[in-house]
Amino acid sequence: MSVLRLFTGRAASAPVARERLQILLAHERSLRGQPDLLMQLREEILAVVSRHVLLDPDKVIVRMDRGKHVSTLEVDIELPNGADRAFASAG
Amino acid sequence: MAKVLVVTSGKGGVGKTTTTAAMGAALAQAGEKVVVVDFDVGLRNLDLVMGAERRVVFDLINVVHGVAKLPQALIRDKRLENLWLLPASQTKDKDALTEEGVGRVIAELRKSFDWVICDSPAGIERGAMLAMRYADEAIIVTNPEVSSVRDSDRIIGMLDSKTVRAETGERVEKHILITRYDAGRAARGEMLSIDDVLEILATPLLGIVPESQDVLRASNVGCPVTLNSPASAPARAYHDAMRRLLGEAVEMQIPSERKGLMNLLLGRRAA
């Protein structure tokens, strides 16, 4: 096979496909049957933050990026100006 | 004992309808009494691949809704007297099917047929769910390509959790059928190999159907490939798969097209 590759000058792409699938499916299988993790995180973060500041539920964005070694969870909450003070004076 | 077999895949365009028609015809030729049921409501195609598109009067939805009786909707194949088709509706949407209604139709079909083969629509929505709901066995049609393998994995998960069998603690017997396989490209490392696909999906193999122009030729004329060109590579692959489905031990091989010497030397695919 390597001799063939010398002539064609191309690396075999099937092993890449295989490795990508194995990583992806291992992950997807582990999530199967569980409620949507991101939705759950979003709900709970929303509940905690709104206990202390007023916020618009539509302005809460929770995003997850999966890397090979680490994954990141990004939480983006937009607070209207003066929201905390409004909340403090109301409480 | 009647068997309900779903032909499914998740991904579209991998060969579910071709497989349903070819396996249905092969089983009927082997003496089994077979009905093929099109679950692709709104986008029916099994009638066309079977060459019965001008004979459709009533369909699955009509039977589910009690507009027609089952015998009125069943179309007998003109070539094989053991083979019948229950077409899908062309106009109604997928919500026209109810779980309970489909259950009734399947139960009635079980009484008069040896095999009830359900041709699933693509996707993982309601239509695909209903097609697999009452299955005893499943053929998961997979192309050696990343998106098809991923979708097959998803469908296997659904077969193990969303079917009546799964819910009652039994198992749906699952088989992988690899279609559109190109041995040359797999050998050159350009295509996932059979072993790769089987290892990833961890499900037994029913057969390997090579990529072939005979499949297109058969659908052009509205005849299952197993009838249209019985000696062709895909027809032989489907025939072997049918025998395995009936419990015979058939050695696994990849039927190939006859190649000319020049084609072999140049590494070209046979036309």
Automatic annotation (TrEMBL), chain B:
<keyword id="KW-0131">Cell cycle</keyword>
<dbReference type="InterPro" id="IPR025501">
    <property type="entry name" value="MinD_FleN"/>
</dbReference>
<dbReference type="InterPro" id="IPR002586">
    <property type="entry name" value="CobQ/CobB/MinD/ParA_Nub-bd_dom"/>
</dbReference>
<dbReference type="Pfam" id="PF01656">
    <property type="entry name" value="CbiA"/>
</dbReference>
<protein>
    <recommendedName>
        <fullName>Septum site-determining protein MinD</fullName>
    </recommendedName>
</protein>
<keyword id="KW-0067">ATP-binding</keyword>
<dbReference type="InterPro" id="IPR027417">
    <property type="entry name" value="P-loop_NTPase"/>
</dbReference>
<feature type="domain" description="CobQ/CobB/MinD/ParA nucleotide binding">
    <location>
        <begin position="5"/>
        <end position="222"/>
    </location>
</feature>
<comment type="function">
    <text>ATPase required for the correct placement of the division site. Cell division inhibitors MinC and MinD act in concert to form an inhibitor capable of blocking formation of the polar Z ring septums. Rapidly oscillates between the poles of the cell to destabilize FtsZ filaments that have formed before they mature into polar Z rings.</text>
</comment>
<keyword id="KW-0547">Nucleotide-binding</keyword>
<keyword id="KW-0132">Cell division</keyword>
<keyword id="KW-0717">Septation</keyword>
<comment type="similarity">
    <text>Belongs to the ParA family. MinD subfamily.</text>
</comment>
<comment type="subunit">
    <text>Interacts with MinC and FtsZ.</text>
</comment>
<dbReference type="InterPro" id="IPR050625">
    <property type="entry name" value="ParA/MinD_ATPase"/>
</dbReference>
<dbReference type="InterPro" id="IPR010223">
    <property type="entry name" value="MinD"/>
</dbReference>
